[in-house]
Specification:
This protein has 18 helices and no strands. With 541 residues, the protein is an all-alpha fold. The protein has three domains: 199 residues, Growth Hormone, Chain: A, CATH 1.20.1250; 53 residues; 263 residues, Growth Hormone, Chain: A, CATH 1.20.1250. The longest helix has 45 residues. It starts with 14 loop residues before the first helix and ends in a 12-residue tail after the last helix. The relative contact order is 0.13.
Length: 541
Amino acid sequence: MSDKTQAPEAVEVTPQEHKRLRWALILISLAQLMVVLDSTIANIALPFIGADLDIDQANLQWIVTGYALTFGGFLLLGGRLADLYGRRRIFMIGVLVFALASLLGGIAQNEAMLLSARAFQGTGAAMASPAALALITTTFPAGKERNRAFAVYAAMAGVGAAVGLILGGWLTGLDSPLGIAGWRYTFLIVVPIGVFAAVLAPRYFDESERHSGWLDVPGAITGTGGLLAIVYGLSLAGQEAHGFGDSTTITSLAIGVVLLGVFLLVESRVEHPLMPFRIFKSKNRATAFAVMMIVPAAMFAMFFFLSLFIQQVVGYSPLHTGVAFLPFSIAMIISATAASKLISHVDPRFLSGIGTLLSAAALYGFSRITVPEDPASILGSLPAAMGGQGVPIGDGVNYWTQILPFIVLMAFGMGLNFVPLTLVAVHHLRAQDTGIGSGVLNTMQQVGGALGLATLSTVSLHFAQSRADEIAPSIAAAAPGMDQAALSQLASLGAFTEGATMAFFTGAIMMLAASAIVWIFLDVKHEELATENAPEGVHVG
């Protein structure tokens, strides 16, 4: 394939064609909305899912990481499938798989069924998302129509996050006349959206030309399997019954490392690798990829731990929790817009360097939150029927001074990171590598977020369990008639803040490390990014 590409000339669009393109954009937007929506909507429902399906704190994070790992692990394979077998076909299969998985999640009767459904959702998203993006190029003519389609597609990320938070809160707190738990609607609501998009796709999308080639199935299986094994090992390491010295933990981590080693070996030898090593030859691009693995970990951790803290400790309702997170989406849209303008005048190192420092400061701010841990306060959180006052342990936490400022600070940090690092990641790629570069970047984000959350969950569980063991005797002395299960639950609730704040503190250290990587290794000038395409014949690196 030649390195030189000719941009198609803009064409006039007839009214009939304009109507078709409008519907095509609606379907693509709905697919992207589904994928982004399910990254945030379940966060608000986590406490209710855990209580309903008896999922303990150690395994609750799998509701988030299971989706992110399969999404990120199979994302490149999904893009390759679309090239080989037709983008419309893979788009339809992807949204239908996503819809079916959402249905299974909505009717899940136990932990295994729900976690399997989340992994299944990630697989559907890995097919639908790259196919939807590719359909923009094949469906919309160059010029205004295509530019508008890309803008709407990108905007769905911010809209989806905001809608997911509010919708997740509202649905979770819904008192259904059918007796169905509200959290189940957070999964069921996307089922008709997926079916609608799949049914109408043949009418508004033409099938793309198929390309010859091979699927790197061994690479996809070993890469994703290795990541799953490592995350499983990390989740075991945080549990009191296992720890890092446990044979099962060691075995899981070892299997993960071996599988990732096999993945690297496979990628170095196959003709069409999922992750071509030539993508990493540029120091600046490799730096962007590395930082984009760390940055999402901070965002995943903030949503996961803060959602649980605000509901379980502070006592907010699900809807109130969703509204509490809304400033994050608004501030991130503002900061990303500002970064997109500043990047023409300021080097990426300064934007991303400042962004990582802001995120580190936000996480440190969260780590300073404290709540009472004395027996009277903990027992007072019990309902009046059980002898308490029904006052949440974190009733004294002030949202406006202790939570909101750091949510906004985190959002501004994220916006200043994502824009410049994305531009650097795809800068001066050969024409045939732009899709791969974008796919690798998205994969790094999902995988990095999942691995980061697993690591921080391990930290949280370790400190929370240690603290629970310390405060349990004093609670038992204050309530001598309490059974062991209730005592353990109260001690865990009292110690949750200790674990969450230590996770935030560790996340702050991770962001400082990301900042150091940016300041030391990222060396690309803003003038270079102003060049839309690489010079003819320029190869990766």
